[in-house]
């Protein structure tokens, strides 16, 4: 049920962190990988190819790129697409009273606008493939956040975007179920990635965070391996519109 052999997965932002972890997990399950990255994903490519899978990197800035063009290029690389993982994201930190319009627009463009239009373009391609008898259905997995459920502090545009990702996930699941396309989200907790460098470097804030996590540690990219393979596989064929929280128990506390 978890075998993804012969599938092609797009993973945005897979040059590092959670995106790399999910790309490697999907490759290990059998996928060829297409990456959309602003920084070359050389290490990810090497690791995927060592598993005997193919990797094709498409350098892009998701804040300005045209989603239809990216999906067309990804499809041309390996002849089809089956899975889209909308992972790429950025964060800006400042008090809400001081937060700039530029920081608002930059985060929304990558974390919300690009998520919608890539999902839209991928869904259109899934439907074209069905019409041509190539594939059936498709899988879209968005990266949400604990801040899809909570307000947080000092990250207004990030919180707004991730709350929007959760809403979009549910809406798209409703509209596209009839095409056999499932749309789900993974909501990571506090993870050891570039986005949390500032938090982990602040000893007092880091202790506050760890004290609230029942499992007592920061999450790792490997912690998303099982969840992303599950949501991409036949094991989750009847799962759609769901946000799978991977937070070490944070929301339960």
What does this structure look like?
- 43% of the residues lie in helices and 15% in strands.
- It is an alpha/beta fold.
- The protein has a single domain, classed as NAD(P)-binding Rossmann-like Domain (Rossmann fold).
- A seven-stranded parallel sheet has the order 3-2-1-4-5-6-7, with helices on both faces.
- Helix 5 links the parallel strand 5 and strand 6.
- Helix 4 runs parallel beside helix 5.
- The relative contact order is 0.15.
- Level of helix content? 40-55%
Largest pleated sheet: 7 strands, parallel
Q: What oligomeric state do the depicted chains represent?
A: single chain
Poorly predicted parts: none
CATH topology: Rossmann fold
CATH class type: Alpha Beta
Please give the number of β-strands: 7
Terminal CA distance reads 33 Å
Compute the average pLDDT: 97
What is the C-alpha radius of gyration, as a whole number of Å? 17 Å
Strand order, largest beta sheet: 3-2-1-4-5-6-7
Gross morphology is: globular
CATH superfamily: NAD(P)-binding Rossmann-like Domain
Strand content: 15-25%
SSE topology string: EHEHEHEHEHEHHHE
Number of domains: 1
In DSSP terms (H or I, runs of 4 or more residues), the helix count works out at 8
């Amino acid at each position: 049920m978890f075998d993804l052999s012969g599938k092609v997965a797009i993973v945005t932002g897979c040059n590092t962190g959670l995106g790399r972890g999910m790309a490697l997990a999907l490759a290990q399950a059998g996928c060829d990988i297409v990456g959309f990255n602003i920084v070359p994903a050389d290490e990810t490519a090497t690791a995927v190819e060592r598993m005997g899978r193919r990797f094709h990197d498409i350098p892009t800035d998701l804040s300005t790129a045209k989603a239809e063009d990216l999906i067309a290029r990804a499809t041309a690389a390996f002849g089809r697409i089956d899975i889209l993982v909308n992972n790429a994201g950025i964060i800006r930190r400042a008090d809400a009273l001081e937060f700039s319009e530029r920081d608002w627009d930059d985060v929304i463009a990558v974390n919300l606008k690009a998520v919608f239009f890539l999902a839209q373009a991928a869904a259109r391609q899934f439907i074209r493939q069905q019409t041509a008898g190539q594939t059936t259905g498709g899988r879209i997995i968005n990266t949400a956040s604990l801040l899809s459920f909570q307000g947080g502090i000092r990250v207004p545009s990030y919180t707004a975007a991730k709350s929007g990702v959760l809403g979009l996930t549910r809406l798209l699941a409703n509209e596209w179920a009839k095409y056999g396309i499932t749309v789900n989200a993974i909501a990571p907790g506090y993870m050891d990635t570039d986005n949390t460098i500032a938090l982990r470097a602040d000893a007092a804030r880091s202790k506050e965070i760890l004290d609230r996590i029942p499992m007592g540690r920061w999450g790792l990219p490997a912690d998303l391996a099982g969840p992303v393979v599950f949501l991409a596989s036949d094991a989750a064929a009847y799962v759609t519109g769901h946000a799978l929280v991977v937070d070490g128990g944070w929301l339960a506390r």
